[in-house]
Amino acid sequence: MNPNDELLEGLPADLPEEADTSLSLDDILKEFSPEDAAPPEAEPIPDAETEPAAQEASGDTLRIELPSKEPAAEVTGDTVRFEPVGEQAEEAPPQAEKPKFQKKEPFTEGWEPDYEQPIGEYVPPQPIIFHPRSRLRELKRKLVAGPEKRYYDLTEIGFGRIQAAIFISILIVLFSACVTVLYACGMVPASRIKLMVFLQFLSMLVSALLGCYQMLDGVTDLFKLRFSLNTMLLITFAACFADGILGLREFRVPCCAAFSLHVTMSLLSAYQRRQTELWQMDTMRKATHLDSIVRTPAYHDGNAGLLRGEGQVEDFMDNYAATSGPEKALHTYAFLATLASVCISVVAGLLHSDVSFAVQVLSVTMLVSVPVTAFISFSRPMAILERRLHKLGTVLCGWQGVKRMAGKKVFFPVSHKDLFPAGSCKMNGVKFYGSRDPDQVVAYSTALILADGSGLGSLFEQLLSSRNGRHYDAMNYRAYPNGGIGAEVCQEPVLMGSLAFLQEMGVEIPEGINVNHAIYTAVDGELCGVFAITYNRAYSVAAGLGTLCSYRRVRPVLVSCDFILTEKFMKDLFGINPRRFFFPEREVRQQLQAKALPEDTTAAALITTEGLTPFAYAVTGARAIRTAAIIGTAVHIIGGILGLLIMLALAVLGESALLTPANLLAFELVWLVPGLLISEWTRAV
Fold first, then answer.
1. Residue 497 sits in the same domain as residue 612
2. CA distance 666 to 120
3. Mind listing the pLDDT tens digit for each residue in 264-281?
4. Based on the domain organization, do 523 and 631 belong to the same domain?
5. Quick one: which of 12, 273, 487, 573 could link to 477 by a disulfide (CB 3.0–4.6 Å)?
6. Do 386 and 250 have their domain in common?
7. Contact 637, 333 (CB under 8 A)
């Protein structure tokens, strides 16, 4: 086959019949060659790249020379071969003219805005990475570094040694008390008095050995320029030791029973503090979330309020070990009582010129100046309270948190969710009256419930969805103070509320309709439906409301805009006194509900569980511990002052016969009773 035939096959097939098909290949190539387009007399451009290419064709071989440095391409037969024209001097290529920019209308296809500065590299927006467990992971990291580490430290220390020390100290107290009573009753033979004195002195040394850690803490407090009850216990032991040495010489019974009782109470205080701290750390380390109670100074009518928010671990760890105000007052009194005891002993020594009598007065005065229950005036009520708070998942953030929740009068907001947790309210049935479509009645009722913002909105929405009903908007909504709401739906007046409310509004109710805790719906003055609601009363919620209403200075306030939550309803369901519960107007409820947490405030308590009860017991427990601590401190200081006055009178009169171990033990036991009763204050929370 001839190669020319192949070239001819590429031509169009629909040529006119008059066309001359006898043209040669050269004529065809000249017809389609670009040389014809160039002007014949145009001057050649010196640039080799812009020169027209030389073309040669001969026979069956086509030879085209291009101004290129590529290797030549030779054409033989059916092959096309290209060759460069030749080596030419390299010159800078001329800059091509920029095409004229055609301005387009803004915001049309192909339009681009003009920028004064060049646009940088486009950086696509980074996606927001959501880690649902990031907050929990951060919380657990803080809990492991703080409460959990401290919990295991306390667990390693244990309670075995201190419990054994308390038990042995109690036995020493009982033994010394029995010997003291026998000696006071004259039941000890004269030949056994020296042995009895030695045993008493030895028992006192053993008791001091059991309480050596408490006395070492007193020494540590001195180095920290602080004076505590343990410091006073150390000074008391020094005075009793000196009195015991003199008693061995004079065959006089030392004050072993009273001193051992002081040591026992000091050990018990340390045990209760350690137990309280262990419970607090155990509560914190098991937390999966932390809620807080924060005090806001101006909540309603110039009174403070206790709001709930998100808690931080640092709020507890930075404040739980701080010394309370009553303890500081008691420590200050202990320092003054120690100085007063020394002064009384000096007066006794100067007036009667008897060193032994002065030392005896010093030891007895040190023991009676502070009642024994002063050691547990704060630790015991706190341990009793924390035992209950531990079960509820609540911790108090130290004495600072206790003070924040105290005050003359504080409001505690209560919402529908607090009263009825998830699953507490259920739709028990619906009954329709009149000739209206039931689906329309359900739709109208749902529109009013949603406009009211009631906690029953989810129940009515589920009912509407199950009936494939339509959603309507309630216009001209109005809430009535006697437990009902009203609005216009599809230009028809709709009323919802209790049976008594509809009767007051003039709606005719058929006889025999009286369903407890039901919601009645009337459209255009006609009863159309009765929705029976079951409210499950949770024992924990009732207990929380009861403890809030039992404190006069804590007043729960209803912030939920729910028309069904009336005074009669709350009294019937939860059995509370409505006068202790504040039911404000709807506008006031909306304002209180919109109150925001104050910024940069420290939590007063942390809660790790859901529900109203942990919050309620945290508030009432804090007020109870504050009352018990303040009253206990005041009673112990009064008892100590009375003891100092009695000893001053005896020192001036020189009545050494009254300074017996039996009389001292009786004085301690008398003041032991009110101290124990006051420390039980928090058990009634």
1. no
2. 92
3. 999 999 999 999 999 999
4. no
5. 487
6. yes
7. yes
